[in-house]
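Lab notebook, design round three. We kept the backbone fixed and only want residue identities now. Task for the bench partner: fill in a sequence for the structure below.
Input structure tokens:
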């Protein structure tokens, strides 16, 4: 079999990182990214990009922890290299605060982030409405820089990237040996996945360079995440809403909630409002499938449905998707050598 041709559909954080992992693990493969939108027009560009995992109820915790750990380790190495500023990857310390002590005082990811500990009474004085808190240091991916850095890495490894809307994965079967579906919320239409639904998120990106620590209300609805150039203020979680139009009432509500956690934000300037649709599912769809029409078979690897936590686990799920692509290629090579006998 000649160099296997692999198409990756989608150019958000999942598609780009999956294409990179495939190119790294299968140097003989010819990898192409096909997407109707690239940065800065993806959901991934709206995200804060904080590495604080979201929990997927349909996925075993040890698997989620493994994905998070692989992602943290990968980004920690970038943050500790000369590439850090171009890639938009940096360490950030701060607090997750709760009005009441949570049932789970030690989340499953507490030994992956750095220096996780309960907040002291003195620290809690900053948050008079909260009674419990956790302090830790984690990583943040700033977007667009991280997506542009991934695109640059892909080009350097010879990966092709084309703007193309794919209406049906089958349309790729005559051009490619394997297709990887990283279409995010687009998979709802592309593969008719009824288990995938949008969770709308509205955020503000503001200029407030004096804010250096992250603050997250334990429920995860209100958060302040400082990036290299702008601070992301959030947020909302609106299940089944497909609207990408910012709502001015919501903007005021987010700003007020964030100012009650960090009053200095009243001086923030240049407020930009963004909306994104989290591709949500009970579990990430990370599996092989073989499409078959008229006796012709076409292997597909799905990697979508990362909901509110795509940045936190992207490298771990990309590695697993690349492993599944390797299995598809081994099967194809096995059948082509049997056909020659
Ligand atoms: P996307 O970024 O949407 O990429 C999908 C790609 O597929 C796009 O390029 C699209 O154009 C392409 N596509 C779709 N359909 C087709 C088609 N038919 N043909 C061709 N191309 C197609 N996660 C975290 O871990 N930490 C955070 O702090 C965080 N904050 C967030 C804040 C908000 C407000 C939101 C909305 C999300 C946040 N997330 C966060 C979640 C994170 O953004 C997502 O999990 C992640 O971006 C999903 O990435 P993706 O590549 O699957 O999807």
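Proposed sequence:
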């Amino acid at each position: 079999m000649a160099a296997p041709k692999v198409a990756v559909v989608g150019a958000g954080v999942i598609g780009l990182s999956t294409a990179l992992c495939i190119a790294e693990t299968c140097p003989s493969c010819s990898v192409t990214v096909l997407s109707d939108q690239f940065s800065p027009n993806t959901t991934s560009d709206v995200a804060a990009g904080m590495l604080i995992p979201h929990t997927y109820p349909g996925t075993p915790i040890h698997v989620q922890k493994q994905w998070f750990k692989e992602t943290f380790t990968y980004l920690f190495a970038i943050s500790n290299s000369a590439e850090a500023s171009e890639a938009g990857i940096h360490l950030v310390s701060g607090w997750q605060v709760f009005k009441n002590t949570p049932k789970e005082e030690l989340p499953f990811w507490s030994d992956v982030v750095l220096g996780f500990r309960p907040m002291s009474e003195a620290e809690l004085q900053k948050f008079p409405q909260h009674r419990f808190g956790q302090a830790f240091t984690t990583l943040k991916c700033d977007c667009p820089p991280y997506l542009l850095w991934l695109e640059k890495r892909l080009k350097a490894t010879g990966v092709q990237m084309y703007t193309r809307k794919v209406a049906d994965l089958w349309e790729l079967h005559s051009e490619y040996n394997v297709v990887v579906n990283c279409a995010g919320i687009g998979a709802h239409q592309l593969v008719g996945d009824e288990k995938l639904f949008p969770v709308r998120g509205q955020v503000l990106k503001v200029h407030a360079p004096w804010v250096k620590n992250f603050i997250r209300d334990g429920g995860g609805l209100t958060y302040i995440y400082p990036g290299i150039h702008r601070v992301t203020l959030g947020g909302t979680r609106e299940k089944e809403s497909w609207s990408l139009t910012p709502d001015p009432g919501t903007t005021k509500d987010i700003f007020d909630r964030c100012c009650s956690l960090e009053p200095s934000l009243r001086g923030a300037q240049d407020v930009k409002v963004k909306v994104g649709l989290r591709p949500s599912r009970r579990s990430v769809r990370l599996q092989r499938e073989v499409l078959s029409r008229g006796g012709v078979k076409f292997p597909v690897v799905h990697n979508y449905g990362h909901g509110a936590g795509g940045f936190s686990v992207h490298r771990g799920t990309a590695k697993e998707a690349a492993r599944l692509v390797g299995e598809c290629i081994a099967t194809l090579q096995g059948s082509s050598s049997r056909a020659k006998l």
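Keep this in mind before ordering anything: The chain has one domain: 5-335.
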